[in-house]
Design a protein that fits this description.
The chain has 13 helices and 26 strands. By secondary structure, the protein is an alpha/beta fold. The chain has two domains: about 10-25 and about 245-475, Alpha-beta prism (UDP-n-acetylglucosamine1-carboxyvinyl-transferase, Chain), CATH 3.65.10; about 30-240, Enolpyruvate transferase domain (UDP-n-acetylglucosamine1-carboxyvinyl-transferase, Chain, Alpha-beta prism), CATH 3.65.10. About 55% of the residues are buried. The protein has helices spanning about 30-40, 55-65, 105-115, 135-140, 175-190, 205-210, 245-260, 280-285, 330-335, 360-370, 395-400, 435-445, 465-475, and strands at about 10-15, 20-25, 45-50, 70-75, 80-85, 95-100, 120-125, 145-150, 155-160, 165, 170, 190, 190-195, 215-220, 225-230, 240, 265-270, 290-295, 300-310, 315, 340-345, 375, 380-385, 415, 425-430, 450-455. It is globular and about 60 Å long. A hairpin with a 3-residue loop joins strand 8 (about 145-150) and strand 9.
């Protein structure tokens, strides 16, 4: 049983000594949940959303649009009703919009606020406010937006909404967040906004525009790129959807199923958008035993994933692979640690500007576990070992003081640290990044009977508040 005391910000893990056979459901997809609230809020009419994600990031989006004058209600049937105000029906907020740790919220809502005739300010936590925003400030400014940030790059962002002009924009680094920000701004622009991306990124925003009968076109280019042409000043129709499970959340349990000997984990009703399942494609290349069952097309492609213990081979990740698995690299690094051979990742410089520098965080933590890893400017290298069971990291004095163990707890799984222990085991930092934290917890569970402390785990609530509850359900 996993036990965390109220307010606990670190967890002690003892590696599992038995296989797992389990069927689970993960929370609703974060990316779709963000867009459902945003596009429902500026639609003409009332939209109904089933199974909205209740992560802190998504609740921040709900709070933001309520502050902008949108009525958003929760019903007894666990559905959300969004009373859309139309494209130009948002109200000036009376205070700063808190985006907490959500880069998606900050970047996407900026495109909407830039086209509305009022003043607004966006600010988040210390991690969010250190993330670069020039990638949206620059193109929005080209459209005529009045948007300002610290050093013209960092939040807080102040936005004075105005009439926007259509532009042609070649997105320098493939990013669904930047693309979606410009699509939203294009809704308010005079004329047709054209966006070119060298490598096609996740297309949830485009899926919504189709659902809402909004005038836009999309076409593949001869060089393998993608062009989106969106007409300004149209009307977004309301919608009624059920949001599938979040693939990025499922990825942690896919890893457990693949890597824990004799295990099999089934994850039901998961989003299988073509631009989100790059990890599955790569894992199959590595000879992973992954099966998709109950495949169907609802609002998006959905299915059930079955991941069974596999002997994996190393692979090389290129720039073409990156957009379709951009959020899964921390857990992919864990998987690569158990694959035979040397895995390399290139073309993933985007990872340096996530919630933390994920390239640096991955390499630093894996090296602490004794897994050979090194950084590249645009990725990393991992020397995998299928039989790896943990090589003890020697703590320095400052770290030794921070390692604890509650001896009264049964040590199957994770415990709340309360009592000092000897300086043996692993001491791992999340760097305030939810995906780093969860990935390191999964890695710790794979090290039979070894102990690992993971620090700064409150960030997990950003995306997956019931992560520990699901782990409890399959470990018990």
């Amino acid at each position: 049983m996993i036990k965390l005391s109220t307010g606990a910000n670190s967890v002690l893990i003892k590696g599992l000594d038995k296989p797992l056979k389990s069927e689970i459901t993960v929370p609703a997809d974060k990316s779709i949940s963000h867009r459902a609230i945003m596009l429902g809020s500026i639609a003409n009419g009332n939209s109904t959303i089933g199974r909205l994600s209740v992560s802190r990031d998504n609740l921040a989006t709900v709070a933001a649009f309520r502050k902008l004058g949108v009525r958003i209600e929760a019903s007894k049937e666990y559905k959300i009703k969004v009373h859309g105000n139309g494209l130009y029906g948002l109200k000036e907020p009376l205070s700063v919009i808190n985006t907490y740790n959500s880069g998606t919220l900050t970047r996407l809502i900026s495109g909407i606020l830039a086209g509305n005739d009022f003043f607004s300010v966006l600010s988040g936590d210390k991690y969010l406010n250190s993330r670069p925003m020039a990638r949206i400030i620059n193109p929005l400014s080209l459209m005529g937006a009045k948007i300002f940030g610290r050093k013209n790059n960092y939040p807080p962002l102040s936005i004075i909404g105005s009439k926007l002009n259509a532009i042609y924009y070649d997105v320098p680094i493939p990013s669904a967040q930047v693309k979606s920000c410009l699509i939203f701004a294009g809704l308010y622009a005079d004329g047709n906004t054209v966006i070119y991306e060298k490598n096609k990124t996740r297309d949830h925003t485009e899926q919504f525009l189709s659902l809402q009968d909004y005038p836009f076109t999309e076409e593949n280019t001869a060089d393998g790129g993608n062009i989106i042409n969106i007409k300004g000043g149209g009307e977004l129709k309301p919608f009624n959807i059920e949001i599938p499970g979040d693939f990025s959340s499922a990825a942690f349990f896919i890893a457990l199923g693949l890597l824990l000997k004799d295990s099999e984990i089934t994850i039901k009703d998961v989003l299988l958008n073509d631009r989100r399942v790059g990890l599955i494609n790569v894992l199959k290349r590595m000879h992973a035993n992954i099966e998709i069952i109950d495949y169907r097309k609802d609002f998006e492609k959905v299915g059930t994933i079955k991941a069974s213990y596999s002997k994996l081979s190393a692979t090389n990740i290129t720039e073409e692979d990156v957009p379709d698995m951009i959020d899964e690299f921390p857990i992919f690094a864990v998987i690569a640690s158990f694959a035979e051979g040397i895995t390399t990742v290139h073309g993933a410089k985007e990872l340096r500007v996530k919630e933390t520098d994920r390239i640096k965080a991955v390499a630093a933590n894996l090296n602490k576990f004794g897994i050979k890893s090194k950084e590249y400017d645009d990725g990393f290298e991992i020397e995998g070992n299928p039989d790896y069971l943990g090589q003890l990291y020697k703590f320095n004095n400052s770290e030794r003081k921070s390692v604890f163990l509650n001896k009264s707890n049964n040590s199957t799984g994770l415990n709340n640290p309360t009592e000092k222990k000897d300086a043996s085991g692993f001491y791992i930092k999340s760097y305030g990044d939810h995906r780093i934290a969860m990935s390191m917890i999964i890695l710790a569970l794979l090290l039979k009977n070894k102990e690992t402390e993971v620090k700064d785990i409150r960030c997990i609530n950003t995306s997956f508040p019931n992560f520990f509850n699901i782990l409890n359900s399959i470990i018990d």
